[in-house]
Structure to design on (441 residues):
C-alpha cells in the first residue's frame, strides 16, 4: 500500500473543507436549525421564535461592533462571511435557549443541546472552509498530536560555500547516507537589543544541513499573520512537507526556514515598526538574524537572506526589505496591506508615534519607496484573485515598487484571503527563492 493510499484510509487525513465530511456537517447543521425553529404551539410561533431571532440578530450585531469598533484585535475587521456564520451559530444557541425551558431533561433538553452543538459545528466548519486553515483533522489536532524535535546546534568542522559566480548546488555532492527528510524544531529567539517579548518560533533544517561538509544554506525568515502564530506555518502551512518536497527534488538542498513571531500575541499588532508600541523592527532585523548567526551555520550577506509573510506578515516582510535592506535582499509579500495599520491611519500614527506623521512616513513602505530606489532588492507580491480587500492594496503597492526600481512580480492566485493562497505563495516560489539566494543556478 502506498503512502498516499494509506493516508486516504486514515481518518485524520480525510478532508474537512471539501467532500463528504464538509457537506454532511453542513446538512446536519441546517437540519438542526430547522428542528430548533419548529415547535408546536401558538406561543412558540408568535412570541418565542421571533424573540429568539431578534435576540440572535442583536447579539450578532453587538459582536460585530465589539470586535471591529471597540476591541479591534486586527485591523481589517471581521469579513462579512464570518459575521454571517457567527450569526448562524448565535441563532442556534438562541433558539436552544428558548426551547430548553419548555422541555424535560431527557430526552428533550439533550436533543436541543445536541442540535445547538451541530449548528455551532456547522458555522465553525463553514468559517474553516473560507480560510482552509484546518484542511484535515491532523492539522486541527496538530498542537496535541504532533511534536517538534530539538534544534541541531552543533558546529560542523567543515563547511561548503558557493564559490564566486556559481550556485551552491554546482559544488554540492550529497553523501550516500543523507536523510530523506529535514527537521522542525521549536525555538526561543531572544530579543536582547529590542527587549521584544515573543512566543516560540520554529526552525526548519533541510536534509543537507546534516551532511559533512555542511553546505552554507540561505535563510528564509517566515512570518505569520495577525491574528495568528508561528505554528500556523508549521500546521496549516504544511511547511515541512513543502520544504522536504523541494529538498527531495534538489539533492537535499533547501533554504533554512526560521519562523519568527512578529507580534508576541495573536491579539496584539506591533505594526512591525520601532515605535512607542515596541521595537518590532529591531527584533526582526537585528535580534533574529544575530541569533541565527550565533546558533546555526548559514550563508551570510543580504543576497542569501529573504523574508516572507502572510497578511500582516506580508506587510511586515515588505517593511523589513525596505527599512533593513542590508539584512534582507528578497521578500515575498503574501496578501499584505497598503500600509501598516491598527485599523485606521489616524489611530496608527497616534498610538505608534504620538501623532507624528513624519515619524510614520519615515518607515511606511509607500513613503519609503517614493523617496528611494531599490535596484538590488527583489520581491514577489501574491494575492488571491477573489480577495476584494487585499488585492487592490497589493496592486497599488506593487505599482509603487516598480516605480522604486524593485525587481518585482505580481502573482494572482485562485482563492481569496485563505491558506490555499498562502501555501501556494511559498511553494510555487521556492524555485525563484532558491535562485535568488544562490542555492541553485
Amino acid at each position: 500500500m502506498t503512502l498516499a493510499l494509506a493516508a486516504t484510509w486514515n481518518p485524520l487525513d480525510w478532508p474537512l473543507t471539501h467532500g463528504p465530511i464538509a457537506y454532511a456537517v453542513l446538512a446536519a447543521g441546517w437540519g438542526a436549525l430547522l428542528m430548533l425553529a419548529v415547535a408546536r404551539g401558538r406561543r412558540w410561533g408568535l412570541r418565542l421564535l421571533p424573540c429568539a431571532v431578534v435576540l440572535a440578530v442583536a447579539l450578532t450585531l453587538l459582536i460585530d461592533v465589539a470586535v471591529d469598533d471597540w476591541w479591534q484585535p486586527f485591523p481589517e475587521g471581521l469579513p462579512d462571511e464570518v459575521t454571517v456564520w457567527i450569526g448562524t451559530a448565535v441563532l442556534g444557541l438562541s433558539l436552544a435557549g428558548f426551547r430548553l425551558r419548555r422541555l424535560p431533561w431527557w430526552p428533550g433538553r439533550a436533543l436541543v443541546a445536541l442540535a445547538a452543538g451541530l449548528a455551532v459545528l456547522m458555522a465553525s466548519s463553514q468559517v474553516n472552509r473560507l480560510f482552509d486553515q484546518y484542511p484535515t483533522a491532523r492539522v486541527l489536532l496538530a498542537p496535541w498530536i504532533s511534536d517538534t524535535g530539538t534544534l541541531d546546534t552543533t558546529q560542523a568542522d567543515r563547511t561548503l560555500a558557493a564559490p564566486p559566480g556559481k550556485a551552491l548546488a554546482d559544488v554540492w555532492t550529497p553523501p550516500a547516507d543523507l536523510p530523506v527528510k529535514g527537521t522542525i524544531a521549536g525555538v526561543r529567539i531572544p530579543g536582547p537589543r529590542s527587549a521584544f517579548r515573543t512566543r516560540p518560533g520554529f526552525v526548519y533544517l533541510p536534509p543537507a544541513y546534516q551532511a559533512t561538509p555542511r553546505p552554507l544554506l540561505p535563510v528564509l525568515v517566515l512570518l505569520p499573520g495577525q491574528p495568528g502564530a508561528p505554528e500556523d506555518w508549521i500546521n496549516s502551512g504544511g511547511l515541512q512537507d513543502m520544504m522536504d518536497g523541494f529538498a527531495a527534488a534538489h539533492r537535499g538542498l533547501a533554504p533554512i526556514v526560521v519562523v519568527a513571531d512578529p507580534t508576541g500575541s495573536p491579539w496584539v499588532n506591533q505594526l512591525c515598526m520601532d515605535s512607542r508600541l515596541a521595537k518590532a523592527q529591531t527584533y526582526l532585523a537585528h535580534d533574529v538574524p544575530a541569533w541565527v548567526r550565533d546558533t546555526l551555520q548559514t550563508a551570510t550577506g543580504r543576497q542569501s537572506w529573504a523574508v516572507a509573510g502572510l497578511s500582516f506578515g506580508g506587510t511586515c516582510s515588505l517593511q523589513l526589505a525596505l527599512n533593513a535592506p542590508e539584512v534582507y535582499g528578497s521578500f515575498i509579500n503574501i496578501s499584505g496591506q497598503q500600509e501598516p495599520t491598527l485599523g485606521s491611519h489616524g489611530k496608527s500614527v497616534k498610538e505608534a508615534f504620538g501623532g507624528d506623521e513624519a515619524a510614520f512616513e519615515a518607515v511606511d513602505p509607500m513613503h519609503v519607496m517614493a523617496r528611494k530606489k531599490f535596484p538590488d532588492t527583489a520581491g514577489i507580491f501574491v494575492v488571491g484573485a477573489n480577495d476584494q480587500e487585499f488585492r487592490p492594496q497589493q496592486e497599488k503597492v506593487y505599482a509603487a515598487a516598480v516605480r522604486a526600481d524593485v525587481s518585482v512580480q505580481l502573482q494572482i492566485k485562485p482563492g481569496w484571503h485563505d491558506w490555499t493562497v498562502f501555501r501556494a505563495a511559498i511553494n510555487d516560489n521556492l524555485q525563484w527563492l532558491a535562485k535568488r539566494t544562490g542555492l541553485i543556478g
